[in-house]
């Protein structure tokens, strides 16, 4: 409810809407709240449309369009702006390329390290293709060395024992272990 002094008092009624309440307040006070708010919104809309129009024109000009309206000074300014933009774009481009090169170099270094390790492993297998089995002449036909175990396993096989499936003592083959000091 609005008092005789123009102040709005709390009023609850299911039959009156908030808009109607504000309209009643505006009528009593003599102020048009909606119109002033509408005018402010219209002014803001005009400003945003101007900004949008100017940005679109600048984009067209940077694309080489709509240049007829520009005088010499504006054309010089546009060229300077485009040159500065190109400079920034080139700097970013070179940074991206530099990052890609560094990433590629890291990958190449990793591949080279993997290759070196594989070559070392291959060379080690070429030196000892039987995993430590060394054939030698003399009392024993072959010897198997275990570098971590600290011993050498030596086998002596008799030529007449081709049909035996297991090793036994006193027959055709001997197994001897030598401790390494």
UniProtKB/TrEMBL annotation:
The keyword Coiled coil applies. Pfam families: K-box (PF01486). Residues 38-128 form the K-box domain. Keywords: Coiled coil. GO terms for molecular function: DNA binding; DNA-binding transcription factor activity; protein dimerization activity. The keyword Cytoplasm does not apply. InterPro entries: TF_Kbox, TF_MADSbox_sf. One of its GO terms (cellular component) is nucleus. Residues 31-121 form a coiled coil. SUPFAM superfamilies: SRF-like. This is K-box domain-containing protein.
């Amino acid at each position: 409810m609005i008092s005789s002094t123009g102040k709005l008092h709390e009023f609850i009624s299911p039959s009156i809407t908030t808009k109607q309440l504000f309209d009643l307040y505006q009528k009593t006070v003599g102020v048009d709240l909606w119109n002033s708010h509408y005018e402010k919104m219209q002014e803001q809309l005009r400003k945003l449309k101007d900004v949008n129009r100017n940005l679109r024109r600048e984009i067209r000009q940077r694309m080489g369009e709509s240049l007829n309206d520009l005088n010499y000074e504006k054309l010089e300014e546009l060229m300077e702006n485009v040159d500065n933009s190109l400079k920034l774009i080139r700097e970013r481009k070179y940074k991206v390329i530099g990052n890609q090169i560094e990433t590629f170099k890291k990958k190449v270094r990793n591949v080279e390290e993997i290759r070196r390790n594989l070559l070392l492993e291959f060379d080690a297998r070429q030196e000892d293709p039987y995993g430590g089995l060394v054939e030698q002449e003399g009392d024993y036909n072959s010897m198997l060395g275990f570098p971590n175990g600290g011993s050498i396993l030596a086998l002596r096989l008799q030529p007449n024992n081709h049909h035996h499936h297991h090793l036994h003592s006193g027959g055709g083959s001997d197994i001897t272990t030598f401790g390494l000091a």
